[in-house]
Amino acid sequence: MKPKFSSGDKVFAKVRGYPPWPARVEGLADETPNKMKYHIYFYGTGETAVVKGEDICSFVENKTRLGKPKKHKNFTEALIQIEAELSPEEQQTLSELEQSFKEQTSLNDTTGDDAKRSSTTGKSKTSLSPTPKVNKPKEKKRKVDSDSGTEEDQKKRASVVSNSDLEHKNAEVMSRSGRKIKPKRFADFEDEGNEENSPVHQPVKPISKVAPVKKIDKDETGEDKYVIAYVNNEKVKIPLGYNQPQFSSEQRLNEWKFKERSYANSLKKRLESGETLPFEIDAHMFKWTKENAEQPVIQDNLMRTEIIRTETLLLELDLNIRSALNIKNADTKKCLTYLEQLSQLKLTALMLKKHPDVVHTIKKVRRYVGNVPRALTEEEEQAFHRDAEEIRNKAEHVYSKFQSLFFFPNNKSFWDAFEEERENFDKITKHMNSEEIVGMIKEPE
Fold first, then answer.
1. N or C: which end of the chain has fewer CB within 10 A?
2. Which UniProt keywords apply (predicted)?
């Protein structure tokens, strides 16, 4: 089965008692290579765990759904850290997905408003459209009229009254069928003349104020100057560009800008979620940028120091293992100790490509039998063979751990695939000197 995730992938990982958390894949779990469990590093907390593949999903593809502000401690910090480590391609994809999500949300809101508006108008028409009843002349009045005047006058008068009533009734029906009557709340302050001449769409005018707000603000705002948050239909500006340090490359500058904008977006989410921040935004961003201006350089130096320390220990253990298994004077106990220490190191694929001799040593130790010293008793010889078997098993475990750091096709042996990977690494770094290769902390592009 082909692994779904590779070493270094940015993901959301789920463990019991916590929501899906920003994390990084460190490699396949060497204990269960066929069940697709992964070694996971969690941002914000720095903790690690072995997580099933079914509890892991892509960070970039699911950030709009799972990256909403949460009350859990360190969650916001975890989002900032993982977004700061995204590649430019991942950042571009994430921006496009977030923009698409915002547009879809805006479209849904507009559709909902239109539906409500249509429903309101329909109800108004239904409740107000019935034609008012025309009061019929009472019989007594007609009787009185018939008593006063000749029969011919009565016929003329009846004809005039009948025609007048009919015209009035028809006029009322036409006036109501040719327009939409405004709800009473909008017409209280108008007289009947204005009501008769009011345009069809006049009643829904007040509802159309919401949609253009963001569009106007977006046109007026400079994206490089601040991030806009909307709180109670009012915009809050989160400034950008304070205390920007000088960088030697455009890539480092872009990384800084992305980190600053990510933090500003985290403040935006907190504001829009209804949280009341205990500080003034402008002053806080000035303080934050000042404190973090040199942090990228410091973090790189700390990471480089830690990697060099690990690689130095790796080379020392490699030398000690080979010395302990010397043909003339093998010390199996010491070899087992060194193998155990090697299995505890936090290694990366880059470290092994920089020092391939370590992989070659462990590959050979997996087949170790050893020469039994001549001066051993039968009991000591049996103990030697037991140690040799334990050395092979321990070396197999370490070799499996090396293998979990890479993702190669199943139809190819790890050693052959590693050799191809190492040759490719040598081609990419052939223009570098040994100091540059040793100081490398990221995969070359």
1. C
2. Coiled coil, Nucleus
